[in-house]
Amino acid sequence: MNNKDDILRQSLTADWFGDGEDRARLDPVSTARAALKPQLPKRFYREVQSEARGEGHVLLLDGRPAMTKLRRPLAGENAALGAMLAEEWSAQGEHIAPATMPVTRVLHAAIDHVADAMGDVRADIVKYAGSDLVCYRAPEPERLVERQSALWDPVLRHVEARYGGRFILSEGIRFVEQPAEAIAGIRQAVDGIGSPAALAALHVLTTLSGSALIALAVHDGLLDAEAGFDAGELDADFEAEIWGDDEEATERRHFRLADFSAATRILRALVG
């Protein structure tokens, strides 16, 4: 790899994978469009490997470690995550499209952002539980009420049984303060996650679904990626059935699902 390739690699990390912040905080449509621009960076490497080193299972491009924006090795915490990274980078064609690399984006965030702010990320997840999506129910129409109950009630039952405390439901958008013991159970669960990658993945699930409870249900294996994503998209999908969908909404849903699925795969690789 020559000096030009080094510059390309560094520019790619800095300009296309952001500053290590959780990508779920950004507008997914804008992110997707940026990643699909004609100015996509050209692939500058031939061989992709994952090698166990002190920093974890490091991604190697033509034998050299790939680095994050903060100049940290881009690596998975175990062999499975290392393989997932290598798979995404190997799958790139003539150009590199970060929109097709959700695992890379989540792990990049874990390394450069989450690892240095574990307490803040945990607090943000717990904050969602205080006004969680699954606790706010529609008064009508009956079809929506039934669908919310079918998808969300099992999540509530699971969380209450596993973490203690009963969450209170509200009709409409009227805020209801949740019992302290219910929030404490969620906080204890989130505090028990010591892996930056697992915490980053849980945060992605939470922000995409709008629900810490759905995220934990996926984390615990109650829901798979598709079921968890559908639970978070329930209201939006119902509106689309009534009013119809458009190209932008379909595009947004596609990239949100890809990120949700990648975060779920990361959790499965770490916690089973």
Protein architecture, described:
By secondary structure, the protein is of the alpha+beta class. The chain folds into 2 domains: 3-101, 2-Layer Sandwich (ATP12-like), CATH 3.30.2180; 117-271, Orthogonal Bundle (ATP12-like fold), CATH 1.10.3580.10. The chain is 58% helix and 7% strand. It contains 12 helices and 6 strands. The chain has helices at 3-16, 28-35, 79-90, 102-112, 118-130, 142-163, 180-191, 196-209, 212-219, 225-232, 234-243, 247-271, and strands spanning 48-53, 56-61, 64-65, 75-76, 136-137, 170-171. The strands form 2 sheets. Strands 1, 2, 3 and 4 form a 4-stranded antiparallel sheet that branches. Helix 4 (102-112) packs across helix 8, helix 9 (212-219) packs antiparallel against helix 10 and helix 10 packs across helix 12. It is globular, with a radius of gyration of 20 Å. Residues 20-37 have low confidence and may be disordered.
Please tag this protein with its features.
2 domains, alpha+beta, ATP12-like
Condensed summary:
This protein is an alpha+beta fold and 272 residues long. It is built from 12 helices and 6 strands. It starts with a helix and ends with a helix.
Largest sheet: 4 strands, antiparallel
What oligomeric state do the depicted chains represent? Answer: single chain
Spell out the CATH superfamily of the largest domain: ATP12 ATPase
Shape call: globular
CATH class of the largest domain: Mainly Alpha
Would you count the extended β strands for me? 6
Query: If helices are DSSP runs of H or I spanning 4 or more residues, what is the number of helices?
Result: 12
CATH topology of the largest domain: ATP12-like fold
- What does the average pLDDT come to? 88
Provide the structure class.
alpha+beta
Percent helix, as a range, is 55-70%
> How many domains, as an integer?
2
CATH level-two architecture of the largest domain: Orthogonal Bundle
